[in-house]
Write a structure and sequence with these properties.
The protein has 243 residues and is of the alpha+beta class. The chain has a single domain (4-242), classed as Porin. It is 16% helix and 50% strand. A hairpin with a 2-residue loop joins β4 (92-104) and β5.
């Protein structure tokens, strides 16, 4: 029998799939109505411009962009961090916003804000022992860079890496409100703040729709928190708009 949490997860996955399908069909249908543009530009979808030999892809808009992403994370119970997946069966949620700039056709630099959520059962014995129990979240501002190793017309394949400062909420799940002490070796620990260092790396595929400014993608990645050590996997579905 499916639990309420399992049904909620399945509903979320269906929502993401339907959203991407709608965006894909809508942008391509609209683009067909606008597809009476310059024929010479369509015939030369890729061309080398400038003395540096940079390839310009007409089907892909490059420059400043903003993106949102939604996905799931799966924590591996390794390291000195809190056990956020005690039964190896819990999947968390992941949401993010990214602002970036395409320095080159295949190189992007930017900043991000990431939010992750974990649902845990309340365990009084763990609470009395000073261990994490109950729902907990963490929010991380940071910087990232990505390098596209495949740039084929509308499809890009890339690797992305990022680093940020991860703030745990509520902080008293990791830090005692009485003395500011924690069972975990946090990077920052006091009565009101519990923070660790976040690092992540991901492989992604990005498809630029026929509207050029809008792209859809999927990423698979690995993330690690340092102080305390916490490791996990994630999958995310980014939507990006390039100005």
């Amino acid at each position: 029998m499916k639990t309420q949490r399992t049904r909620a997860g399945i509903t979320a996955i269906h929502t993401v799939v339907l959203m991407f399908t709608f965006l894909f069909l809508a942008t391509n249908a609209y683009a067909k109505k606008q597809d009476s543009g310059d024929a010479s530009r369509k015939d030369n979808a890729e061309k080398v411009v400038g003395d540096d030999g940079i390839i310009d892809i007409y089907a892909v808009e490059r420059g400043f962009h903003v993106g949102v992403e939604v996905g799931a994370n799966y924590v591996l119970n390794l390291g000195s961090g809190p056990a956020l997946n005690p039964n190896w069966s819990s999947v968390g949620q992941r949401f993010g916003v990214r602002l970036g700039y395409d320095v080159l056709n295949n190189l992007t630099l930017g900043v991000f804000t990431l939010a992750q959520f974990h649902r845990l059962d309340v365990d009084l014995s763990n609470t009395m022992a000073g261990r994490v129990t109950g729902d907990i979240s963490h929010f991380a501002p940071g910087v990232y860079g990505s390098f596209a190793f495949v740039t084929k017309h509308r499809f890009f394949s890339y690797v992305r890496g990022g680093i940020g400062l991860d703030f745990w909420v509520p902080s008293d799940r990791l830090v005692s409100a009485d003395d500011g002490q924690s069972e975990y070796p946090l990077l920052i620990a006091n009565e009101s703040i519990a923070a660790s260092l976040l690092a992540e790396v991901a492989l992604g595929v990005e498809y630029y729709t026929k509207l050029r400014h809008i792209s859809l993608g999927v990423e698979l990645g690995f993330q690690a928190n340092i102080r305390p050590e916490l490791f996990g996997l994630f999958v995310t579905f980014p939507v990006k708009y390039t100005f």
